[in-house]
């Protein structure tokens, strides 16, 4: 089920380009177009769901299981110290389709509080390499 005009539904449906790192029944994961750190992944429910409060209870487990697997894949695939996993609900939610951010973290990486500078990929090849490493670890 998609929602007209939803950027994430367009990505899920293949109508908008994105670098997909995982696709399963409950969720789709792709690289964030404006990453906090390289390898920053967004995990979204496969069906249009505006917020966490709208996610049917039977879909909570499968969705968060996908988030957990992606967090592990980011950590292993990118050889980082850990991940930052977060989501916004309505306030600061730039796309009204539920999404969890899985951000690779390294000790002393400079991420402090809610000051989040963006670190874009230098080339498409660099972006694709990050996606391939995460995908391989998934």
Low-confidence stretches: none
Q: Provide the CATH top-level class.
A: Alpha Beta
Q: What is the number of beta strands?
A: 5
Order of helices and strands: HEEEHEEH
Report on the biggest sheet: 5 strands, antiparallel
* Strand arrangement across the biggest beta sheet: 1-2-3-5-4
Q: What is the percent of helical residues?
A: 25-40%
How far apart, in Å, are the first and last alpha carbons?
25 Å
What would you give as the CATH superfamily?
HIT-like
Helical stretch tally: 3
Radius of gyration: 14 Å
Structural class: alpha+beta
CATH topology: HIT family, subunit A
Q: Per the principal axes of the C-alpha atoms, what is the gross shape?
A: globular
CATH architecture: 2-Layer Sandwich
Describe the protein's topology.
Elements: H1 7-12, E1 20-23, E2 27-31, E3 41-45, H2 57-78, E4 82-86, E5 100-105, H3 124-137
Antiparallel strand pairs: 1-2, 2-3, 3-5, 4-5
Structure notes:
With 138 residues, this protein is α+β, with helices and mostly antiparallel strands. It has a single domain (7-137), classed as HIT family, subunit A, CATH 3.30.428. Helix content is 30%, strand content 18%. The protein contains three helices and five strands. The protein has helices spanning 7-12, 57-78, 124-137, and strands spanning 20-23, 27-31, 41-45, 82-86, 100-105. The protein has a five-stranded antiparallel beta sheet. A hairpin with a 3-residue loop joins strand 1 and strand 2. It is globular and about 40 Å long. It starts with 6 loop residues before the first helix and ends with a helix. The relative contact order is 0.22.
